[in-house]
Specification:
There is one protein chain. With about 110 residues, the chain is mainly alpha-helical. The protein contains five helices and no strands. It has one domain: Rna Polymerase Sigma Factor, Chain: A. It is globular, with a radius of gyration of 15 Å. Keywords: DNA-binding, Sigma factor, Transcription, Transcription regulation.
């Protein structure tokens, strides 16, 4: 089967405990700093999703400017967030709660 983009669709298997964040949880995440979201993401994957939702587009724009190719920029963005997830316990808040320098640093390393 071919998806709408001409490629095979991505099939994601979820753990039975996985569930979408509720509207109340999403509203609560909106008020948190990036540093707070990362701290919560150690035990709450929905908090990391909120961080992803904040930074996916800026990260993609950064990658697209750097490589000039939309598909490669999508791959870099995905890899950036995979690495951020795996290293979320190493985040140190050095920018008044902003994760942008940390995430863009990870994205720069994806290119190397």
């Amino acid at each position: 089967m071919v998806g709408p983009n001409g490629h095979e669709p991505v099939v994601t298997q979820h753990h039975p405990r996985d569930r979408p964040a509720t509207a109340i949880e999403e509203a609560a995440y909106a008020d948190l700093t990036d540093a707070d979201l990362i701290a919560r993401a150690r035990t709450d994957p929905h908090a990391f999703r909120a961080l992803h939702d904040r930074y996916a587009e800026p990260t993609h724009r950064f990658a697209a400017r750097r490589c000039g190719d939309h598909e490669t920029a999508l791959d870099v963005t995905a890899e950036t967030f995979c690495r951020a997830w795996r290293s979320r316990h190493t985040f140190a808040d050095r920018r008044a709660g902003s994760a942008a320098p940390w995430l863009f640093g990870i994205a720069r390393h994806v290119f190397t």
